[in-house]
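Page 37, continued from 36.
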């Protein structure tokens, strides 16, 4: 089972490939990573992006690291993106993603993904269970256009990451299945990134309904990548595995294999307070990888 690390933990710390590539290869003992766009903003000037892409290619070639995919990261995730109420902002989100695709290709990265966006909250605080039909149709149309753009750039897959919030889409298995059917003819396959901290979120799904088995069973071959984190099922924690939580690495890996996903790449995705010292972050990631590798790799 391909096992690696999302470079989210490197944000504001190990921000260049000269820093993170040897760290991943030598300190963590891994040879596959997922780039976070918290390290590179696709809206930066083109000449700078070309230089940064060359740096990634050079450093990963030198260390024998495969950059499997690139994900949008926390910074861009804070925006409402493709579900913003203003169509102009949705257009801008499309431009951002097109530039992300172009950068990924120049850096030798063949896949890009992340959450799609969030609808605006209502004044009374009540959250709807469905998207308005016009908003959903607009979202699907934009995803088809983005697939066309991705194909033109040479990408091979795009990913949607379901999140455990009614403001985002999709957040249920049925919604994901509908979306998969509506994207069946896209120029580049749209697949799902499933996150262990999302599908197990009990405040949304209920104590006895939360879990990953239903997602794995229903989506099957439409699952393209999996994010792993330690969590208590109460929030999307993104803890490392030095923290006490409810996930057992052996059991999570076994469940993935039991649903025919033994070859689906898995990435540890963890976040830390920016004020935490670098040495303790690195040590926590190293210990987590050491715990997870026997189960996954």
């Amino acid at each position: 089972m391909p096992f690696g690390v999302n470079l989210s933990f490197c944000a504001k710390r190990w921000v260049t490939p000269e820093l993170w590539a040897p760290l991943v290869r030598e300190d963590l003992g891994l040879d596959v990573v997922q780039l976070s766009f918290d390290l590179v903003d696709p809206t930066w000037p083109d000449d700078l992006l070309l230089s940064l892409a060359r740096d990634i290619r050079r450093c990963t070639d030198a260390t024998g690291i495969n950059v499997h995919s690139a994900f949008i990261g926390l910074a861009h995730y804070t925006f409402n993106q493709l579900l913003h109420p203003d169509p102009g902002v949705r257009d801008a989100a499309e431009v951002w993603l097109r530039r992300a695709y172009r950068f990924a290709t120049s850096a030798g990265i063949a896949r890009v993904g992340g959450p799609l966006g969030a609808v605006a909250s209502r004044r009374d605080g009540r959250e709807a269970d469905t998207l308005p039909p016009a908003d959903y149709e607009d979202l699907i149309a934009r995803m088809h256009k983005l697939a066309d753009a991705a194909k033109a750039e040479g990408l091979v897959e795009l990913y949607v990451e379901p999140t455990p919030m009614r403001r985002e889409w999709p957040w249920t298995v049925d919604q994901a299945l509908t979306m998969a059917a509506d994207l069946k003819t896209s120029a580049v396959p749209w697949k799902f990134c499933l996150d262990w901290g999302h599908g197990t979120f009990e405040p949304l799904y209920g104590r006895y309904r939360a879990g990953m088995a239903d997602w794995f069973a229903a989506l099957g071959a439409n699952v393209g990548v999996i994010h792993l984190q330690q969590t208590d099922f109460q929030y999307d924690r993104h803890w490392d595995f030095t923290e006490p939580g409810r996930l057992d690495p052996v059991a999570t890996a076994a469940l993935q294999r039991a649903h025919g996903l033994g070859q689906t790449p898995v990435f540890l995705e963890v976040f830390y307070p920016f004020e935490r010292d670098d040495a303790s972050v690195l040590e926590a990631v190293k210990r987590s990888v050491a715990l997870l590798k026997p189960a996954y790799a």
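The radius of gyration is 18 Å. Flag for discussion at group meeting. The chain has a mean pLDDT of 97.
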